[in-house]
Amino acid sequence: xxxxxxxxxxxxxxxxxxxxxxxxxxxxxxxxxxxxxxxxxxxxxxxxxxxxxxxxxxxxxxxxxx
Length: 66
Prior knowledge:
The protein is mainly beta. It is built from no helices and five strands.
């Protein structure tokens, strides 16, 4: 599986699905979610709700089971 990478390096393609996350920091808030890039919003949005804080890292989705 891939390692977490800075969100600044995430592929920004319409409809692209990746895993995004946030960890550590002053608020110590941590999460991960499957998210999609939206050109019109110019940001990643999770499949559920909204991010309380913007993601800091990303990784590609793993290969599905065979």
